[in-house]
Automatic annotation (TrEMBL):
Origin superkingdom: Bacteria
UniProt keyword terms in alphabetical order: Glycoprotein, Repeat, Signal
Claim: Glycoprotein is one of the keywords in the record: yes
Keyword Zinc-finger among UniProt keywords: no
Organism: Leptospira ellinghausenii
PANTHER family: GAMMA TUBULIN COMPLEX COMPONENT C-TERMINAL DOMAIN-CONTAINING PROTEIN, UNNAMED PRODUCT
Database matches in SMART domains: Int_alpha (SM00191)
InterPro entries, sorted: FG-GAP, Int_alpha_beta-p, Integrin_alpha_N
UniProt protein name: Fibronectin type III domain protein
Gene3D superfamilies according to UniProt: Integrin alpha, N-terminal
Length: 553
């Protein structure tokens, strides 16, 4: 028989489970509070996911629970802005992209306001939010200095501490060099939808534009900036419609200008020294083919980059560690992910990741995320009807739940990658598209299902409630937690104002105990932030968009 109590001590609140028949502690007990072993055990318990044995006791953390912390709206919210199309978080700072925003402003507004102009359709914008205590406020409104109509600035965003990078995949300049501030960007419309990325830096509370990134082989319709990621002084930018047929990495610059493989895709790596950015590498997969869309998603953690190619067509169901990859094309749009690693300033392909149940049409690689030695890959069109997690190297071959979706976890030991888990949600349904977006921080993974249909408007920690499918395509996000090498379902997020076709979860990000979820099709006309668990149910500004903050405590 066990009882539980909370004990408050210098390292926090610990939950102690104890047996009624256990012997009391004595001065001669090796777990005396003055002993080194006593302190070491309490420290271990403070980070353990499960109670640990300790001198007749079981000691562990009281479990952390997720709750809704805030409802973010742009201060100039308007119909069709698509606020929440992209989101990213680092510490107490969130950046949200609104690729459909239409202001013609070409400067940054530091503070809580934003332009109400609508003269430049789908030019795009990004918004910075800052948390003080548990309250969020708008800190800046970011616009690029060479803004153009339909640039879709904000289609992708990333942040690491005081640096933000924003993609504009339909920007039209034919420039093939980087512009570092304070140099001005020359107006140029010579390469339609070539794309660009912009770097912003914070000093104190003031944001300014630091650099304008263009690839060394800029081409029309490449859509450079469709995806991007940042880690420290390194940025990776995807161009999923780039057309080179190169099957090797170029360390340095320039990248090749050939057009031999339409929409094969590429990723570019940029490095900062001081305040100056330069192109460091041009990444291509070793089995590159036309139409693979390598670079549709990208993420970076320190010296490792993972890239998705959701239309890659190999039927391989194993991982290739090293620089090789299958040239088979018998599983159309099965998808793949590639791992690249830097040693010094040189990048090499470290692994070629495939799902253990890879099949045509699964689109494995449509979403990727990495933290340290763990990668998670989404496959929103996978069709298994499984509603449990498989820890290990296998995955279901069932195909009875069309486009239900799945996510896959991979783990690195040394330089060798292996498949660790196959994630499925407990309330899986056909066409839910679980795996549309993914995010990871430490031992926590978030996975979205943008077409999930439940009418719930609260957060569920633990066991799922009864399923309901009355809010078509309202969307949901699922939280999974790792203990040791075992993954388990932990929480289920829904918007407080969940509604049909909102597609909650189209973008997600996590930092520590805070997660942010984008809902670019949300329809409220609210232009203020709501701190707390409520949100507007007004639907008078179609697809204005929103973002929700969730906190674990």
């Amino acid at each position: 028989m066990f009882r539980s109590l909370l004990v408050r001590n210098s390292i926090g609140i610990l939950l102690i489970h104890f047996s009624i028949s256990c012997n009391p502690l004595t001065l001669n007990n090796p777990c005396d509070q003055k002993s080194k072993a006593y302190i070491e055990t309490l420290l271990l318990a403070s980070v353990s996911e499960t109670p640990i044995p300790f001198c007749g006791f079981r000691v562990g953390n009281s479990p952390k629970l997720w709750e809704t912390q805030a409802y973010l709206k742009a201060s100039n919210a308007d119909a069709n802005d698509g606020f929440g199309y992209s989101v990213a978080i680092s510490g107490d700072t969130i950046v949200v992209g609104a690729a459909g925003e239409s202001s013609n402003q070409t400067t940054i507004t530091n503070g809580p306001t934003a332009s109400s102009d609508n003269s430049l359709g789908s030019a795009g914008a990004a918004y910075v939010f800052q948390r003080f205590g548990s309250s969020w406020s708008q800190a800046a409104y970011l616009k690029p200095s060479n803004l153009g109509g339909t640039d879709q600035f904000g289609v992708s965003v990333a942040i690491d501490r005081d640096t933000i990078v924003v993609g504009a995949n339909q920007e039209d300049s034919n420039q093939t060099t980087i512009t570092n501030a304070p140099n001005a960007i020359a107006p140029n419309e010579g390469a339609t939808d070539s794309g660009a990325a912009y770097v912003f830096q914070r000093s104190g509370t003031t944001w300014s534009e630091q650099a304008y990134l263009k690839p060394s082989n800029t081409g029309a319709n490449d859509q450079f900036g469709i995806s991007l990621a940042i880690s420290g002084d390194t940025i990776a930018v995807g161009a999923y419609f780039e057309d080179s047929n190169q099957t090797s990495i170029t360390n340095g610059s320039p990248a090749p200008a050939n057009e031999g493989a339409t929409n094969a895709g590429a990723v570019y790596v940029f490095q900062r020294s001081g305040t100056t950015w330069s192109e460091q590498a041009y990444l291509k997969p070793s089995n590159m083919e036309a139409g693979d869309r390598f670079g549709i998603t990208v993420d970076i953690s320190n010296d490792t980059i993972v890239v998705g190619a959701n239309l890659e067509a190999s039927n391989q169901i194993t991982i290739t560690n090293g620089s090789g990859a299958s040239v088979d094309n018998s599983a159309v749009n099965a998808g793949a992910a590639y791992v690249f690693r830097r040693t010094g300033t040189t990048w090499t392909q470290e692994a070629y990741l495939k799902a253990p149940n890879a099949e045509s049409g699964d689109q494995f690689g449509n979403a990727v995320a990495i933290d340290g030695d763990t990668i998670v890959v989404g496959a929103f069109a996978e069709s298994s009807n499984q509603t449990t997690i498989t820890n290990g190297t296998t995955a279901s071959s069932d195909n009875s739940a069309s486009i239900a979706g799945a996510a896959y976890v991979f783990q690195r030991t040394g330089s060798t990658w292996s498949h660790q888990a196959y994630l499925k949600p407990p309330n899986l349904g056909a066409d839910d598209r679980f795996g549309n977006t993914v995010a990871i921080e430490g031992n926590t993974i978030l996975v979205s299902s943008i077409f999930e249909d439940n009418n719930q408007t609260t957060v569920t920690n633990g066991t799922m409630p009864n399923d309901d499918n009355s809010l078509s395509n309202s969307g949901a996000v699922y939280v999974f937690q790792r203990s040791g090498s075992t993954w388990a379902f932990r929480a289920y997020f829904k918007a407080p104002n969940a509604d049909v076709e909102d597609r909650f979860g189209n973008a997600i990000s996590i930092s520590g105990d805070t997660a942010v979820v984008g809902v670019n099709l949300e329809d409220s006309n609210q232009n203020t932030i709501t701190n707390g668990p409520t949100a507007s149910t007004n639907n008078s500004a179609l697809t204005s968009g929103a973002a929700f903050v969730f906190f674990r405590k």
